[in-house]
From TrEMBL:
CDD domains: OAT_like. Gene3D superfamilies: Aspartate Aminotransferase, domain 1, Type I PLP-dependent aspartate aminotransferase-like (Major domain). Its cofactor is pyridoxal 5'-phosphate. This is Aspartate aminotransferase family protein. InterPro entries: Aminotrans_3, Aminotrans_3_PPA_site, PyrdxlP-dep_Trfase, PyrdxlP-dep_Trfase_major, PyrdxlP-dep_Trfase_small. Pfam families: Aminotran_3 (PF00202). GO terms for molecular function: adenosylmethionine-8-amino-7-oxononanoate transaminase activity; pyridoxal phosphate binding. GO terms for biological process: biotin biosynthetic process. SUPFAM superfamilies: PLP-dependent transferases. PROSITE patterns: AA_TRANSFER_CLASS_3 (PS00600). Belongs to the class-III pyridoxal-phosphate-dependent aminotransferase family.
Length: 452
């Protein structure tokens, strides 16, 4: 096993203590509670975070599903440092720099067959909106500009841009913002609690849920729908695993009706399911695929969209001379992000992180399902190195039990993620059996402590 070498770093500067919590408006956070009861991490190394006081917290979530190679990887740090000394920034509009092209080529080596054209963004949210815009541009380029409808899925998450929110299906992410994009619709969630509870891996029942796309075609007309966007495994909503055959059926229907299929692989990419991408594990190739998070091990923000050669050729070759796609970001293909991506891809290959995920998946699954008889556990779901433990809500207080479990776990040295009363887990792919035991042991104790 390759040694996990932390960056020498910065334990001196990284453990500084803030003296003012008021200026920072924190994302997806109960700001009022946090600023009265702050929980901080100041340093990362291997499988762990460390608080400003030096207390170790095992990372059961790979940050936010993103630090797949663990924390403090010297190889990535040094690549960023070298690049910063050579070229800190260069514009990508009508100008290029070599490392962005190298990073795109390396990504294309591991994407599913035919998805060889890579457009760089800076986050999963930007990747989601970019993929939707590419889909609309594709249909317009092929003479079907009336295809403007975008279809997502209930409980889907595709970031927080207006496109991703509109196609996404998590009510709490939408209700504050009024009207979103017009001409969107949604497939039903793939989760059937009465039939799927405590399934190990993919549920056997539920492929028929993809057939609802035929209903949307009948309602709106096939020639009005541009794309269907789904996560291979819905992560942020609480780990919803697709039924056997569901994605295959969705692929068949999209092909039948000339609709582009977009996979949001922001979470499932780069080894999380024991393969480079979820498409590989699940045996379905989309037309467009989004990615971010594990692309740079989260060391520098970066996202990307991989499009099929047909999509790229149609948009580019059908355009008049000049700019073919009026879209992009100031930091697309940023030199430091590209350097981080190349170093991360080197680590994934050298250490076979997808292979390590596959090897420990049985122990991970067994540990997750060992919580079945813990108090208030209503469901357990897992696939690859992802798991969710769903808890019954306290009457009249939805989310309270989940939040309290999160806080207890952190205070006892394990970081988990919570969505309402669902505890989600997605550790770095360098995890070992001792870490698995520690994560689920601490989680069990926290759930029991919140039994009342």
């Amino acid at each position: 096993m390759n040694e996990i070498r932390p960056a020498s770093a910065a334990a001196d500067t990284a453990t500084s203590r803030p003296n003012n919590l008021e200026a920072y408006w924190m994302p997806f956070t109960d700001n009022r509670y946090f600023k009265q009861h702050p929980r901080m991490v100041a340093r990362g190394e291997g499988m762990s975070y460390f608080t400003p006081e030096g207390r170790e917290v095992i990372d059961g979530t790979a940050g936010l599903w993103c630090c797949n190679a663990g924390h403090g990887r010297r190889e990535i740090t040094e690549a960023i440092q070298r690049q910063a000394a050579v070229l800190d920034y260069a514009p990508n509009f009508q100008l290029g720099h070599p490392i962005a092209f190298e990073a795109a080529a390396r990504i294309a080596e591991i994407t599913p067959e035919g998805l060889d054209r890579v457009f760089f963004t800076n986050s999963g949210s930007e990747s989601g909106d970019t993929a939707l815009k590419i889909a609309l541009a594709y249909h317009r380029a092929r003479g079907e500009a009336q295809r403007t409808r975008l279809v997502g899925r209930e409980r889907g998450y595709h970031g927080v841009g207006f496109g991703g929110m509109s196609v996404g299906g998590i009510g709490g992410n939408r209700k504050q913002f009024g009207a979103l994009l017009p001409y969107t619709d949604h497939l039903p969630s793939t989760h059937l609690p009465g039939q799927h509870a405590f399934t190990r891996g993919q549920p056997e029942h539920g492929a028929h849920l993809a057939d609802v796309l035929e209903n949307l075609v009948a309602l709106h007309g096939a020639d009005t729908i541009a794309a269907v966007m789904v996560e291979p495994v819905a992560g942020s909503t609480g780990v919803l695993v697709p039924p056997v055959g569901y994605l295959q059926r969705l692929r068949e229907l999209c092909t039948k009706h000339g609709i582009l299929l977009i996979f949001d692989e922001v979470i499932t990419g780069f080894g999380r399911l024991g393969t480079n991408f979820g498409a590989e594990r699940l045996g379905v190739i989309p037309d467009i695929m989004t990615m971010a998070k594990g692309l740079t091990n989260a060391a520098v923000p970066m996202g990307a969209v991989a499009a099929s050669n047909d999509v790229y050729d149609t948009v580019v070759n059908s355009a008049p001379n000049g700019i073919e796609l009026f879209h992009g970001y100031t930091y697309s293909g940023h030199p430091l992000a590209a350097a981080a991506a190349l170093a991360t891809l080197d680590l994934h290959r050298a250490e076979d992180l997808p292979g390590r995920a596959r090897a420990i998946e049985p122990a991970w699954q067994e540990a997750a399902h060992s919580l079945r008889d813990a108090p208030n556990v209503t469901d357990i779901r897992d696939f690859g190195l992802i798991a969710a433990v769903e808890l019954a809500a306290r009457p009249g207080k939805p989310g309270e039990r989940g939040q309290n479990v999160f806080r207890r776990c952190f205070d006892n040295g394990v970081l988990v993620r919570v969505t309402g009363d669902i505890i989600a887990l997605s550790p770095p792919l360098i995890i070992e059996k001792a870490h698995v035991d520690r994560i689920f042991g601490t989680l069990t104790e926290a759930i029991r402590a919140e039994a009342g």
